[in-house]
TrEMBL record:
Organism (species): Rehmannia glutinosa
PANTHER family reported in the protein's UniProt record: ALDEHYDE DEHYDROGENASE-RELATED (PTHR11699)
Segments forming domain Aldehyde dehydrogenase: 60-487
Active-site residues per Swiss-Prot or TrEMBL entry: E299
UniProt record similarity statement: Belongs to the aldehyde dehydrogenase family.
Keywords assigned by UniProt, alphabetized: Oxidoreductase
Protein name: Aldehyde dehydrogenase domain-containing protein
């Protein structure tokens, strides 16, 4: 379901992404991983950290414990800032503020039109500060600045404008009933919404969570990912500048086992929304059930199959499958991380996929033309390298890549494996990195069975020129979204190319 939402919002964002023909680049220079021996010293980001405390009841405050934790620059591993480390006591303070704002404050009682106006003013402010926010997002997460400035922040703006438009269009129904009875449904805000977002798309996830909750009149306690806490604090300041009442949005930066667990267990939180790993999702669901049985919305991991049939346009399939996997450093829940290719076109696909990976531009995300920045942190970096070693040891053929890029930071070479078998860890586990695994198949029945033999079910891609084949796979694959001869990632790639 989340994948469908992204696709529709990206298509609606098209007019915004050209930014009037303006290209905002910081620095120059392009490196290809196949030719660069090492990275230059990183460019100094054109932004400073202004907000590093918790946001509770409209004020930026220290954690009750006084503790802080470092958020790191993925390009170097060096500290960007020390951020307040919230825990259970801070969650209690934030929930109390959100509860009071919901029960006694103006937000849920405000006219929907006025809520809409505040959200629209906020969108305008974000658009005004686009490059500043994008720089902070790229600095904290490692994603290319062009991606942040030209795609993700404009998408964030469009998200809030979209949800603002829903604020005064939430209608109930009058229903026919037997006998002299009047029956009607009424949609009301649920109350205090607890929200936990991941590090791979910090602001886009902020928009998905906070936007609809506020439009409906709820109050929010948001826990940011400990790897990327900075951009949420900055835009929240702008949201209050737009007129959001105190206590309606509260932000606690901290760690899952402390702040996250306290939010899920809290008896005065009315709903939890979580995006992250499948393992953590199980804990979130259990904690919520053991407290006040609050409803939970989960968006978890993926190992999406992308099936290239024998009649597919191989060049197109190679390009789209490449972007489906390598986009955002491979850190995307619906990444095309199991590429099934028909045996008749397998060898051609492998050669072209290898050539495309060798051309991928890796380097400092603040340089123009960069396609791939560093992974988020040392833990993810080491995890990906461990999976690469596993692929080599299990007998898969390493076509290209397979090691770190440069000597500083968390950069990994774009990696392609061929001759992958379904039981290898690189084919079963969500790697969440720039590692493409290519598997061979003979017929539709076989590939359907193999593609569905997974614990994941987010998305799938199908490349074929045969309508019957497309319909067969579309109905047979047990996933939430199936793309035919296109991918959400390909749309994003088109946008990135169009702005250069």
């Amino acid at each position: 379901m989340a994948s469908r939402r992204i696709s529709s919002l990206v298509s609606r964002s098209l007019p915004l992404l050209s930014r009037g023909g303006k290209q905002t680049y910081v620095g120059r220079g392009i490196y290809r991983y196949s030719t660069a021996a090492a990275l230059e010293d990183p460019i100094k980001p054109p932004v400073t950290v202004q907000y590093d405390k918790l946001l509770i009841n409209g004020q930026f405050v220290d954690a009750a414990s006084g503790k802080t934790f470092p958020t790191l620059d993925p390009r170097t591993g060096e500290v960007i800032a020390h951020v307040a480390e919230g825990d259970a006591e801070d969650i209690n303070r934030a929930v109390a503020a959100a509860r009071k704002a919901f029960d006694e404050g103006p937000w849920p009682k405000m006219t929907a039109y006025e809520r809409q106006r505040i959200l629209l003013r906020f969108a305008d402010l974000v658009e005004k500060h686009n490059d500043e926010i994008a720089a902070l997002e790229s600095w904290d997460s490692g994603k290319p600045f062009e991606q942040s400035a030209q795609v993700e922040i404009p998408m964030f703006v469009r998200l809030f404008r979209y949800y603002a438009g829903w604020a005064d269009k939430i209608h109930g129904l009058t229903i026919q009933a037997d006998g002299p009875h009047h029956v009607q449904t009424l949609h009301e805000p649920i109350g205090v919404a607890g929200q936990i977002i991941p590090w791979n798309f910090p602001l886009v996830m902020f928009g998905w969570k906070v936007g609809p909750a506020l439009a409906c009149g709820n109050t929010v306690v948001l826990k940011t990912a400990e790897q990327t806490p900075l951009s949420a604090l900055l835009v929240s300041k702008l949201l209050h500048e737009a007129g959001l009442p105190d206590g309606v949005l509260n932000i606690v930066s901290g760690f899952g086992p402390t702040a996250g667990a306290a939010l899920c267990r809290h008896m005065d939180v009315d709903k939890i929304a979580f995006t992250g790993s499948t393992e953590t999702g199980k804990i979130v669901l259990e904690s919520s059930a053991k407290s006040n049985l609050k409803p939970v919305t989960l968006e978890l991991g993926g190992k999406s199959p992308f099936i290239v049939c024998e009649d597919a346009d191989v060049d197109q399939a190679v390009e789209l499958a490449h972007f489906a996997l390598f986009f955002n450093q491979g850190q995307c829940c619906c990444a095309g991380s199991r590429t099934y290719v028909h045996e008749k076109v397998y060898d051609e696909f492998i050669e072209k996929a290898k050539a495309r990976a060798l051309k991928r531009v890796v380097g400092d995300p603040f340089k123009a033309g960069i396609e791939q920045g560093p992974q988020i942190d040392a833990e993810q970096f080491e995890k990906i390298l461990k999976y690469i070693r596993s692929g080599k040891e299990s007998g898969a053929t390493l076509e290209t890549g397979g090691d770190r890029f440069g000597t500083k930071g968390y950069y990994i070479q774009p990696t392609v494996f061929s001759n992958v078998k379904d039981d290898m860890l690189i084919a079963t586990d969500e790697i969440f990195g720039p590692v493409q695994t290519v598997l061979k198949f003979k017929d539709l029945g076989e590939v359907i069975q193999r593609a569905n033999n997974t614990r994941y079910g987010l998305a799938a891609g199908v490349f074929t020129q045969n309508l019957d084949t497309a319909n067969t796979l579309m109905r047979a694959l047990r996933v939430g979204t199936v793309w035919i001869n296109c991918l959400i990632h390909s749309m994003l790639r088109f946008l990135l190319v169009a702005i250069k």
